[in-house]
Amino acid sequence: MSSISKEAVDRMTRLIGDRDKAECKVNRLRSLTVDLDEEELKAESEIFQAMADPCRLKILSLLRDGELCACEIMIGVDRPQSSTSHHLSILKSAGLIKERKDGRWSKYRLSEGAVIEMLNLAQIMKDSKDERGNSNDKIVKA
Amino acid sequence: MSSISKEAVDRMTRLIGDRDKAECKVNRLRSLTVDLDEEELKAESEIFQAMADPCRLKILSLLRDGELCACEIMIGVDRPQSSTSHHLSILKSAGLIKERKDGRWSKYRLSEGAVIEMLNLAQIMKDSKDERGNSNDKIVKA
DNA sequence: CTTATATATCGAAATGGATGGATATGGTCT
DNA sequence: AGACCATATCCATCCATTTCGATATATAAG
After folding, report:
1. Hey, are the CB atoms on B62 and A29 less than 8 Å from each other?
2. Crossing angle, helix B81-93 and helix B54-63, to 10 degrees?
3. DSSP-derived pairing of the beta strands B68-69 and A68-69
4. Domain boundaries, chain A
5. pTM score over 0.70
6. Distance from CA of A102 to the nearest CA of B (A)
7. Is B43 helix (H, G, I), strand (E, B) or coil?
8. Interface of A with B in 7-66 (CB under 8 A)
9. Cβ of A67 < 7 Å from strand C?
10. Count of beta carbons in the 10 Å neighbourhood of residue B28
11. Residue B16: closest C-alpha in chain A
12. According to CATH, what is the number of the domain B51-115?
């Protein structure tokens, strides 16, 4: 499908010898990502981007215990008000938290669903990386 | 514990009236994040950071099908060699993929464990955000 | 209407990350 | 040895993000 570049086929041909098979393999590789359109990938990457900050992870942790207003969160993370507000808006537009206006307060809570599982998974991944990191140094066995 | 700033207690006192209770609440908020030391948060955020790029998500998707060499990945994602290599090194040092040297080739595969679940969760989160997104937010940035 | 407070937004500096061409490294083959 | 190739690294440019003080908006209360 779509534009298979001659360059890629050339390179693949050098790799595996047979030009027909090479073209086939390039097609297969390209087709693996055809169903992933750029928009979707970008949307997903934005979710990860929103979690890619220590302060925002701290906020999410705070909210595991229930709803808090921006002011309490600011105290919890110990950052200036404008920074806290900025982080909250990023988390909100990524869909990770929900906002509820209550008088002059903005109260935030975790979105239902996968957020907590995501945090747990990240912790698991970090831990397993720590373990292997020490025993294995840098060389991966052949 | 540790340094409860007078400023935070003042602010909390204004919020809930009673100074003793305020101090107590500040302590509770701070204690929620005491067990999260900065190093750990940073390590976790790096995992998310590594996944916070469309091209890298594409690479991870490619690798769901099995081991590939850098060259094949480069064809799959259709980016210059240096960019591809750069992304691979980020994924590797975040512990999301593993490298195996084989002659002049570097072959990459997903790390065992949580990577795939993470990708699935992200998709679920994106989808549920899309659905709810229409009803509520319209914070599409310009 | 004025004051006070909670939150959002602006603006500018500093930092960080992506990109891709050029070059270096290290393996393979003849 | 030399040629070739896969991959990593270097470097410079560009773009995005973080940070935080200053300011604006909004709501409540006197």
Report:
1. yes
2. 80
3. unpaired
4. 6-35, 43-115
5. yes
6. 13
7. helix
8. 8, 11-12, 15, 25-26, 29-30, 32-33, 36, 38, 40-49, 51-54, 56-58, 61-62, 65
9. no
10. 12
11. A72
12. 1.10.10.10
CATH value of A43-115 in 1.10.287.70, 3.40.50.11810, 3.40.140.20, 1.10.10.10:
1.10.10.10
Cα A23 to Cα A141: distance, rounded to the nearest angstrom: 32
DSSP string, A100-140: EEETTEEEEEEPSSTHHHHHHHHHHHHHHHHHHHHHH-SPP
pLDDT along chain A (142 residues), means of 10: 71 85 88 79 95 97 94 94 98 96 95 89 86 52 35
Instruction: Supply B47's token pair.
Output: 């995992």
Count Cβ atoms below 10 Å from residue A49 Cβ, excluding itself.
Answer: 18
